[in-house]
Amino acid sequence: FFFVSKVLPWVTREMSSSDTEEQPLLIGVDGSLRELSDDWVEPVFPNTPRNPSSNQQGAMFFYLVVLRILVHYDSGAIAALIGSGSCDGKDHACDNSVTMISQLHLSYAEAGLMAGLTYLGLTLACSFGGIMLERYSTKLMLTLSLTCELLAIIIFACSTNKYLSLASRALTGAGQAVFIMFIPIWVDEFAPRTSISWWMALSQIGSNLGIIFGYVAAGVVTSETSLGWRWPFFFQVIVMVPAILAFLLIDAARVDITAPARSETTSPGEQRNAFVEGCLQFPQVLTEPVFFLASAVLSVMYFVVAGMQVWIAPFLHAPPFSIPMTTIVLIYGGIATTAPALGLVLGGLILDYFGGYERMHSTVTFMFLCALVGISASWAVMLTTHLAEAAFLVWLVLFCGGATVPACMGVALAAVDKHLRPIASSLQLLIVNLFGWFAGPLVCGVTASVMQDVRWGFRTTMVSTNLSGLLLLMLRMVVWRRNP
C-alpha cells in the first residue's frame, strides 16, 4: 500500500494533466491565488540537496542502480550453484568438496526452497517495510536494511548448517525489501519530470542485470576455478561494504522521501484505518474473474522464469546434453538478457497497434497465441537432444512470456474499478511473489526429489506452461461472454 500510495499519485497527475490543461496559479504572500501573468519568470533555485542539479541527480541514480545490481546478485548466484546438483566430475563445479548441495546436505526440494526463500522473506517484509519508511528516516532505514542483508549473506557464506543457511536466505530477502520499495519512490520524487518513465524502467532493469551477473559469475567461478561455492558470496560482501559506507556519506536530503514538504501527514490511526479498509477490499478484487485469471497467468509465467533459472543448468549438465557448467551459464545468461527484453518491447508495440489492452478481445487473443507458441516450444525442448535447438526453444519460451507480461498486467488492472486499482496492484504483486517467484523453484525441486532425477525440475517448469494456456482459454471465454 505504501508503494502504491506514493507512485499512484504521480500516475494520476500524469493522466489528468493529459486530459485537461489548467491555467497556472501563483500563491501570493497573503495566501491568495491568482493567475500568472505572461511576463512572469519562474525563479531559479540554487542546487541545494533537495534541489540538486541534473548531474547530481544522474550520479545518484547511477549509484542506486549499481547498488540494486549488487543487491540482486546473490539470487542469480544461488540459481547457478544449484546446477551442481547433477555433478559428474567433468569440471570443478562437480567436485563434491566444493558443491553447495553436497556440503549443506540439501535435497533437491531443499535446494528449491533455498532459491525461493529470498522472495518469501521479501514479500513478508514488504508488509511492514513501507510503514518503516514512512515513519522513520529514509537514510537510516536503508542503511539498516542493507546492513541486515549484508550480515545475512555473510552468515550464508560461512554457514555449514542447512537450516541456518535457509534462514539466512529468508533474512536476505527481508533485508532487500526496504531498498526495493525505495527505488521507484525515489525516482518519482527526484527524477527529472521529462525522464521519469525512462528512469523507472532503468531502475527495474538493475534487478535483472544483478541476477544475470550473479548467475554467470558464480557459474564461471565454480566451474573454472577451485575456489568453491562460497567465494561468489564473499565477493558480493567485499563489494557491498564500500557501497554501504559510501551511502553513509550521502546527504540525507538526497534520499529522504519522508520530508514534510514531500509527504502527507497522517496519524497512526488513519494509517491503520486505510490498511484495514484496503484488506476489506481484497475479496471484491479477487472475485473479479478477469483480474483473477490474468493474475494467475502472470504467476505461471514467473513460476516458469524462477524455476527455469534454477533448474536449467542441471538439465543441460546431465545426459544427453552433458554440457559443461561454464557453457551453460554463458548461454543462459545471453538468453535471459535478450529474450524477455525483446518480448516486452515487441509485445508492447503489438498491443499499441491493436489499440492497447483496453480492447480485451484482441489483447486476450494475442496473449493466447503467444501462450500456444510458448507451450509448443516448451514441449519441444524436452524432446530435443541438440544444444542449439534447446537454446533456441528456451529463448522462444522466455520471449513469448515477455511479450505477454504487459498485456497480463494491463488486463488485470483494467478489469477492476479505478478506485480499486491500487489495491489490485498490491494484491497482484503479492500473488506473483508467492505463487511465481517463491513457488517456482520449490515445486520443481520437490518434483525432482520425488522422481529422484534432477532433470525433472526443469521438466516440471516446462510442463507448467500448459497451465497458462488453460487459464488464458478460460479468460478468453469470460471476455467473450461479457462482450460477444
Automatic annotation (TrEMBL):
Q: Which InterPro entries match?
A: MFS (IPR011701), MFS_dom (IPR020846), MFS_spinster-like (IPR044770), MFS_trans_sf (IPR036259)
> Where does this polypeptide localize?
Membrane
The chain positions of domain Major facilitator superfamily (MFS) profile read 60-484
Q: Which cellular components does GO assign to this protein?
A: membrane
Give the record's keywords alphabetically.
Answer: Membrane, Transmembrane, Transmembrane helix, Transport
Its chief place of residence is membrane
Keyword check for Kinase, yes or no.
Answer: no
Q: Which residues cross the membrane?
A: 60-82, 111-133, 140-157, 163-187, 199-221, 233-253, 290-316, 328-351, 363-384, 390-415, 427-450, 456-479
- What membrane topology was assigned to this protein in its record? Multi-pass membrane protein
GO molecular function terms noted in the UniProt entry: transmembrane transporter activity
Q: SUPFAM superfamilies from the xrefs?
A: MFS general substrate transporter (SSF103473)
Cytoplasm as UniProt keyword: no
- Membership in a protein family: Belongs to the major facilitator superfamily. Spinster (TC 2.A.1.49) family.
| Name recorded for this polypeptide | Major facilitator superfamily (MFS) profile domain-containing protein
